[in-house]
Amino acid sequence: MAVEKRNKLALVVPFIGKLNIVQIRDQPINSKYTLIDIIELEKYHFKFISSLCLPTNHQVTYGFELTIFNQSIQVFGGITLVSNTENEYVYKAIIKQDKHADTDSEMIYMINQLAAKQNNKYGKLVKSYSTDSLSMENTVDLIC
Question: Do 48 and 36 meet the contact criterion of CB atoms below 8 Å apart?
Fold first, then answer.
């Protein structure tokens, strides 16, 4: 069974990624990592949630590490603020394309793998609530 190619995937359950600052105003920086919850994947973008108020200046370059199914991918890019609440910020990461890396195909592969896994879990959940499974159980009619 072939899985169709998807360009965008909203995740039912977020997965954890890492984020750090690698450059500010053309000056290399190697900051510590912080964990982020990735909630949506696209080929060149992804959305994530953080408890930190991060700089969205175009002069700041971030490094992202995504690990899915024991496959790690490292990308670089900038972020924009999508929304925020009192203690949670939603950002959109824009991945810088590297002509020498296979980031495009790796991201498509990750999206397809997550979509297949997510669809399987959803299918099992739906089947567990089907009326067919309820009718297979023993029922007792009580007349008072």
Answer: yes
pLDDT tens digits, one per residue of 38-49: 998 887 889 999
CA–CA dist 8, 101 (Å, integer): 21
* CA–CA separation, 87 and 127 (whole Å): 37
The Cα 17–Cα 134 span in angstroms is 40
pLDDT digits (tens, 9 = 90+) for 54-112: 999 889 999 999 887 777 888 899 999 999 988 899 999 998 876 655 665 666 667 66
* Residues 6, 93: Cα–Cα separation, whole Å: 18
Strand, coil or helix: what is 83?
strand
Spatial separation of the C-alpha atoms in residues 6 and 114, rounded to whole Å? 10
